[in-house]
Amino acid sequence: MLFTSVLRALPAALLFSGTQATPLDFESRQISIDAFITTQTTASINGVLANIGGGSKAPGVPAGIVVASPSRTNPDYWYTWTRDAALTYKALIERLVHGDTTLRQKVDDYVSSQAKLQGVTNPSGGPTTGGLGEPKFNVDMTQFTGAWGRPQRDGPPLRATALAIYANWLADNGNKTYAVNTVWPVIANDLAYAVQYWNQTGFDLWEEVNGSSFFTLAATHRALAEGAALATKLGQTCTGCATAAPQVLCFMQSFWTGSYIDSNINVNDGRTGKDANSLISSIHTFDPSAKCTDATFQPCSSRALANHKAVTDSFRSVYAINKGVAQGKAIAVGRYSEDVYYNGNPWYLTTLAAAEQLYSALYQWDKVGSITVDSVSLAFFQDLVPSVTAGTYAKGSATYTSITSAVKTYADGYIAIIQKYAPSNGGLAEQFDKSTGSPLSAVDLTWSYAAFLTATERRAGIVSPSWGENFNNLPPTSCTGTPACNAKITFNVRATTTFGDNIFVTGQLTQLGNWDPNSAKALSASQYTSSDPLWTTSIDLPASTVFEYKYIRKTSAGAVVWESDPNRRYTTSAGCGSSATVNDTWR
Ligand SMILES: *[C@@H]1O[C@H](CO)[C@@H](O)[C@H](O)[C@H]1NC(C)=O
Ligand SMILES: *[C@@H]1O[C@H](CO)[C@@H](O)[C@H](O)[C@H]1NC(C)=O
Ligand SMILES: *[C@@H]1O[C@H](CO)[C@@H](O)[C@H](O)[C@H]1NC(C)=O
Ligand SMILES: *[C@@H]1O[C@H](CO)[C@@H](O)[C@H](O)[C@H]1NC(C)=O
User: Fold this and answer.
1) Within 6 Å (CB) of ligand 4, which residues are found?
2) What tens digit of pLDDT does each residue of 290-321 get?
3) 112 lines ligand 1 (CB under 6 A)
4) Cβ–Cβ under 8 Å, residues 362 and 409
5) What is the average per-residue pLDDT within 99-125?
6) How confident is the model at residue 7 (pLDDT cuts 50, 70, 90)?
């Protein structure tokens, strides 16, 4: 069974309570991290709910719509982003499946609002022609028509994952009907988008780089794998999911440089590629039933730990507030060191991602029962326990204990950074100033609050259900990308010929020889009669393609005779695997 719900009750402090956050005065900042987590958790769940339609900071916004931030100027984040909303709802749905039933209506509102949004035609396309890749909408659910970095292909798989957790829970709790009739159709649209577009470039989660983003691919792999299993469980079909998933995983391997994850490839962005994009990928695809798999970059994998060090170290020298902090101690983490947005600062959600990966790794080592240190991860571990050497250390051994205790302290250090730079009312903005530590950019960023919730739940050992990593962690030996989407065209031409003549077709496409008579495609005369001089052949051509072509006749003497002008013109249909016939007469 793929989805083993980890049924653990939430500690009371993590459950939504209507009480206000206790203001923290300066002295009380010395309070322990546990006390900070208790108050900041309340502020964070309240912060999330305030920004969803009907909430105190989202007046007039439809139910189920997540506003990125109530900030309407400098910067204007008064929109709903598919990505931010999905990650936020993933956190809420996790809390629901762990027992917080007060969230049920909000989750149902999300399902119905997203079903409607998927139908809104926008600058990225219509409902089945790419529109699901639109990054953001106005909060009233109308299309946003301004210039933007579009498409962003992470939204659909992230939403599919959030909803798959809900659908699995419904099915496991006697409500397969709602899962099949109401939730699955939304998931199915997102998965169909992912199957069709994963092998095309798009903008990354920071909306800047137009290329192949590791985060987008990692989110896609998880969604397709769990989507295929969910379809089976619900008696539905997920066309292409099971065949695309291993190909996505195959492609993901090429982001690994040997020492860290290059977060954006297939683009010349002039950056090192060390980017919190990859930390967020690792926490999003964390599977509590997984081993420390390198291929899926699980939080405890050697690759993900080496990458954690590479990414966090890249911020040690760029922010004044990190100056003088020793190697192996927590620091403020931003998006990527070359960032210039608001002059480039640390973000709450990226600092929290650094903590969450480590808490998730601790959970995995505990389940696996050992820690393996190898040449890839050695430097990460030596920052924390300088005497450690490569080897496997079983739970209970002194080395295992010293590593896990050092990792816990290191992870808590990142929470302490949040404690130090979060304002006393618990409001989490987008960024904090790299020199002064003061909150910066959008106030009350929904994603910042959601990031606090998930990081501290992992610290408490509360995890998202398995997505089936154990059955989806073997990349095929060769990467083929997306199989071509072809339309089979039968070319019929009536051409009266004399014995020894042959008819060919050529034109603007590689499949037709690019107008080169030597590469033209031969037609067959097997059905040729004097009353119906038919020459015919069938050729696979790319779907949705306009091209020009002509027939040519090659004589037995070797001469090439072209049809008269103008060129013929044809458009193949959009359907992969479709077939069509053209009936021409030689001219
Ligand atoms: C199934 O779930 C939906 C959505 O929460 C709810 O409205 C409905 O009452 C549930 N049905 C049953 C039989 O539990
Ligand atoms: C993104 O890159 C692709 C090719 O790499 C290009 O076709 C497309 O026009 C680019 N989009 C934008 C908005 O720059
Ligand atoms: C498509 O997939 C192939 C095979 O993994 C890969 O080499 C190529 O870079 C991918 N292209 C894009 C744009 O995703
Ligand atoms: C082309 O001709 C064949 C018979 O030779 C016929 O079955 C078919 O319908 C024709 N197609 C078109 C598009 O005219």
Assistant:
1) 492, 581, 583
2) 999 999 999 999 999 999 999 999 999 999 99
3) no
4) no
5) 97
6) very low
What single-letter amino acid sits at 296? T
Helix, strand, coil tally for the chain in percent (to 5): 40, 15, 45
Which amino acid residue places its CA nearest to atom 10 of ligand 1? 175
Ligand number nearest to the C-alpha of 174: 1
The answer to whether 204 is a known catalytic residue is yes
At a CB cut-off of 8 Å and minimum separation 6, what does 48 contact?
A: 88, 91, 92, 446, 449, 450, 453
Instruction: List the domain boundaries for the chain.
Output: 23-460, 486-585
Q: Please report, for residues 26, 185, 227, 329, 345, the alpha-carbon distance to residue 245 in angstroms, rounded to integers and kept in the order given.
A: 50, 20, 10, 37, 35
Give the CATH fold of the 486-585 domain. Answer: Immunoglobulin-like (2.60.40)
| Ligand 2 atom index nearest CA of 267 | 5
Q: Is 184 annotated to bind ligand?
A: no
What six digits make up the tokens of 228?
């295929």
| Topology (CATH level 3) of domain 23-460 | Glycosyltransferase (1.50.10)
Instruction: Average the pLDDT over 510-538 and give the result.
Output: 96
Full-model pTM: 0.82
Q: Ligand 3: which residue has its CA nearest to atom 3? A: 481
pLDDT band at 543 (very low <50, low <70, confident <90, very high): confident
Among residues 84, 190, 204, 287, the one annotated as catalytic is: 204
Residue 109, number of CB atoms within 10 A of its CB? 18
**Ligand 3 mutation pick, 255, 479, 482, max ligand atoms within 8 A of CB:** 479
Protein residue whose Cα sits closest to atom 6 of ligand 1: 178
Ligand 2 atom index nearest CA of 210: 1
The whole-number average pLDDT for the span 450-457 is 98
Shortest-distance atom of ligand 2 to CA 203: 1
> Is 469 an annotated catalytic residue?
no
In the predicted structure, residue 17 carries a pLDDT above the cut 90: no
Q: What is the mean pLDDT of the segment spanning 340-346? A: 98
